[in-house]
Amino acid sequence: MNTQPTVLSNFSLPLQWTLRLLLQWPLQWLLRLSWLVLMALLFLPPAQAESIAPGSATVSALAEGGMARSQALNDWIEQPPADPADAAALHALNHDRLFVHTTAPARLGVEHADGQLRDPASGAVLGTSTDTGWEKIRLNNAIRIKLRPRIDLLDLRAPDAAVRHAAAEDLFSARLTPAYVQEIKALIPTLAEPETQAKLGQLVAGFELNDPNPQVRLAAVAGVADVLDPEIRARLAPLAENDPDPTVKAAAKAALDSIQRRVDVWQFSQNLVFGLSLGSVLLLSAIGLAITFGVMGVINMAHGEMMMIGAYTTWVLQQLLPNHLSAALFLAIPAAFVVAGLVGIAIERGLIRFLYGRPLETLLATFGLSLMLQQAARLIFSPLNRAVALPEFMQGSWALNPVFAITFNRMYILIFSLLVFFALLLLLKRSTFGLRIRAVAQNRQMARACGVRSGWVDALTFGLGSGIAGVAGVALALITNVGPNLGQNYIVDSFMVVVLGGVGNLWGTLVAGMGIGVLNKFLEPYAGAVLAKVVVLVLVILVIQKRPRGLFPQKGRAAEE
Amino acid sequence: MNDKTQPVVLPQNGISRRDFMKTVGGASLALGLGIKGALDPALAAETGPIKVGILHSLSGTMAISESTLKDNMLMLIAEQNAKGGVLGRKLEPVVVDPASNWPLFAEKARELLSKDKVAAIFGCWTSVSRKSVLPVVEELNGLLFYPVQFEGEESSRNIFYTGAAPNQQAIPAVDYLMNDLGITRWVLAGTDYVYPRTTNKILEAYLKQKGVKDEDIMINYTPFGQSDWQSIVAQIKQFGSAGKPTAVVSTINGDANVPFYRELANQGIKSQDIPVVAFSVGEQELSGMDTKPLAGQLAAWNYFESIKTPENEAFIANWKKFKKDPKAVTNDPMEAEYIAFHMWVKAVEKAKSTDTNKILESIIGVEVPNLTGGMAKMLPNHYITKPVYIGEIKPDGQFDVVWKSKGEVPGEAWSKYLPGSKDLIADWTPPINCGAYNTVTKKCTGSGG
């Protein structure tokens, strides 16, 4: 516009002027316009760097809140970040650390560990997160879902190879738009590691399965031929069913079949691991009972409450050592053993020793005792459940592939239950104390004649069984509720395992626990959790019908009757 | 425990009962008109304290949830007494312990009504306990205020339901997932008893009506106290990774939730992968869980402790003072009971009597402010209007509200989405005066209890 006066001064003749106006100006303007478009295209990325600068449209909309904020967030996340500041702000948003100054000047601040808010671009301190005017941009699932592929794409450019690979894996569960797939495709050649490249190649191939070009589809099928991801299977299935191109159809079918075979094998192993893990919990909860019921013949209905005591001991120790979760957990094992063991000894001395040889009275008395212990827990710890936190090393899982994963807490409990089992076996078979326990169990009179104080052995044996139940409680605290009802949920299962395994036989308890666990987990996917439990119970009844003394009957006090 | 036994609809029985009520109602009305003021025993004789029954389990499995409500009632009664009681008379709480034992609920309710002569009972948690009390309050013409979210499909002349019906919790939650998170595949997971089964039946019908196909709905039931979720969570994970956005709608009962969420977290399922919206997980349940791995998961309720209003802040402060525990949390059933209690107080003041029949009349239409803003109104079907909130769990065990309904949603006694109940309505005002009135045949089909 500012060139107009020059034009006017140079050409004063109206005709010339009109000619110019008719011919030259549109041309000039066309040129200018294209120049402008070109400039805009060339300089769009730098211009976008302004997107999160103080006072920019995006930031103003973010400061406004409400619908304007969600809209601005959407647009901002979908655009590839223009510069490091933009990326830093996106990361901060993802970590719930992005603040916006809601009053003028509208600007963004990233919260650092010291509570200071810093400018995402310059790093200058802007204030603290508690200052007035600053508001945290809160995440919700809708934003998290949108943010996920964007953050993964940022992480693909991270200097750390492990971060890049994790991002590539995470992209498999992100919701990707075609624009993201294109971005990923463009990124693949820039990555250094072949594994990460292969991973992303599979991801892109998965999307190209729907390409209109049969050649691309064929290549894509080859690209995903050994991917176990269920999403890929879901995309392959329609191709194998009704792809217009017969070669693609055949290839997809072959790929799907080979994937399915591998999935079946992995799923079988996964069920086996699940079963052993459930079995280990059953073993742990039953093993103490295998001593008190199996060896001593006492029907102890308060066995579950011994586990409850162990679980509460874990909670108390975590409360005492709030910053050392792992230490509290390791301390809880001996502590729970001692606490539950002492309670067990007190129960034996105070109640059960008067009831030997009267199983029905023992059953009723210990049932009453279990109710009393539950109510005591309600009075001492309140009827509400208590939260036991998992230490860091027990969280998460080890995923071999999308079908097979082992969760850490379950794996540790499996190992722990076997350790407890073998330690107990060693104690019973190799120590003097174990010898005395067995002697009293097999023939009390003879043992007493040989100088064994049978009353004292009874008390300690009951204490041992209760102590082990307490230790089981520590493990249970890591997978279920710590509350007054904890024991009730396990008492029936415990008896079932001991009776099935054969009263008085530790190996029988191991086999029965693991067997019930594995059977349950193989039935569950087909029959559902409720029916699986019923079927297992029916099978246990059938086995007991055939073998009334359990799978591995043992001689002992219980067997003599 | 089968939901098929839920709408116990006995036409003949119902009609005769209705006729009976008509006669009795008419007679008592005539009586009341004739000798009002002269010989009304409710007004003349009683000047002592008004007794209020509290029927919540303090021992057994349900103590975990119900004992809080007992304390809640004691606090509400103490507050009311500090304000001078009701009709100038003090309130006297009568606490009984039905010990999580369903038949004992009926016995204790009978004891409260016939021995202690309480003016109203506040109590129950599980539907089966309410169903056990229902014939007792109907027989003895008592009042029961039930403060817990449940499956609906019932409306008794003598029971007031101040917790959420499915249309005030489950349906809005599904709408939120569908509209705001773009969910197209659904896992309906619940504990195997009447509330989850009925709710899931309603949700399944609702989803199908919205065009969701059979293969995109997975329904899973687990026994009470399920603690081994490995294969079910693995199944959910497989179901949810078929390329369609998937969510879990959880009606899993309290105790099974800790191992469920723990397994979800350990198997690496985050709220942005497969969000879980729960109808039975509130602030109190979260106080017994390690909440860090749960962050972002959802719950639908009609009240959250984190909602900032002056009424709510006062309520929370009073509760912490009453419990002498700065960490004590409030939850949705507590608010529902708060509303129930204040509605009863208003109805008594309006009727100037604690007589059941008078309150049944005066309470319809009574309005009480919600703790989170807006008004709760008692509807003719004995349900109330409630705002609906969806919250995301924060690492500290509180909720961040991410969605709220526009205004209050009126509770529906009978679901529109179930074939057995879609034509039924409940209306305890004349001329219908019926808990299960068929709008097509124009007949009352019983009280629906």
Uncertain segments of chain A: 1-12, 42-49
- The residue ranges of chain B in which pLDDT falls below 50 over 5 or more consecutive positions are 1-45
How large is the count of helical segments of chain B? 13
Please tell me what the overall shape of chain A is.
elongated
**What is the CATH superfamily of the largest domain in chain B?**
Response regulator
Adjacency order of strands in the biggest sheet of chain B: 7-6-8-9-10-14-15
Using DSSP, what is the number of strands of chain A? Answer: 7
- Our estimate of the beta-strand percent of chain A is under 5%
- The number of helices of chain A is 22
CATH topology of the largest domain in chain A: ABC transporter involved in vitamin B12 uptake, BtuC
Per DSSP E runs of 2 or more residues, the count of β-strands of chain B stands at 19
CATH class of the largest domain in chain A reads Mainly Alpha
Distance between the termini of chain A: 113 Å
By CATH, the architecture of the largest domain in chain A is named Orthogonal Bundle
Major sheet: arrangement of strands of chain A: 4-3-2-1-5
CATH class of the largest domain in chain B: Alpha Beta
CATH-defined fold name of the largest domain in chain B? Rossmann fold
Could you characterize the architecture of this molecule?
- The complex is a heterodimer of chains A (561) and B (449).
- Chain A is mainly alpha-helical and 561 residues long.
- Chain A folds into 3 domains: 89 residues, no CATH class; 102 residues, no CATH class; 295 residues, ABC transporter involved in vitamin B12 uptake, BtuC, CATH 1.10.3470.
- Helix content of chain A is 69%, strand content 4%.
- A 5-stranded antiparallel beta sheet of chain A has the order 4-3-2-1-5. Chain A has a two-stranded antiparallel sheet with strand order 6-7.
- In chain A, helix 3 runs antiparallel to helix 4 and helix 7 runs parallel beside helix 9.
- Chain A is elongated.
- In chain B, the strands form 5 sheets. Chain B has a 7-stranded mixed beta sheet, with helices on both faces. Chain B has a 5-stranded parallel beta sheet with strand order 2-1-3-4-5, sandwiched between helices. A 3-stranded antiparallel beta sheet of chain B has the order 17-18-19.
- Chain B is globular and about 70 Å long.
- Chain B has 2 domains: 258 residues, Response regulator (Rossmann fold); 109 residues, Response regulator (Rossmann fold), CATH 3.40.50.2300.
- Chain B has 449 residues and is of the alpha/beta class.
- Chain B starts with 10 loop residues before the first helix and ends in a 5-residue tail after the last strand.
- Chain B has 13 helices and 19 strands.
- The chains are: A mainly alpha (561), B alpha/beta (449).
- Chains A and B meet through helix 6, helix 11, helix 12, helix 15 and helix 16 of A and helix 3, strand 7, helix 8 and helix 9 of B.
